[in-house]
Specification:
Helix content: under 10%
Strand content: 25-35%
Number of helices: 1
Largest sheet: 3 strands, antiparallel
Bound molecules: zinc ion
Shape: elongated
Radius of gyration: 14 Å
């Protein structure tokens, strides 16, 4: 996981007032990354309007990743 090792802050995350709990391993330690949604695949699907960043919270224990689309 060296690609994202720098500046990674790991800890509990709350979304809409609820603390995230990993559905796979039950961990509450997540780190955050942003993923741009306007990929080639999205363009092929006719979703190239999605020129925005989604927020990902990745479980620090098993790697399960939550995706949150930004509010529009
Ligand atoms: Zn997990």
């Amino acid at each position: 996981m060296g690609l994202f090792s720098k500046n990674r802050e790991v800890g509990p995350v709350s979304v809409a007032g609820n603390e995230l709990v990993c559905p796979v391993c039950g961990s509450r330690d997540f780190w955050q990354r942003e993923t741009q949604l306007n990929t080639t695949g999205m363009t092929l699907l006719g979703l190239d309007w999605a020129n925005v960043n989604s927020t990902n919270f990745v479980c620090d224990h098993c790697g399960y990743m939550f995706w949150f689309h930004p509010e529009r």
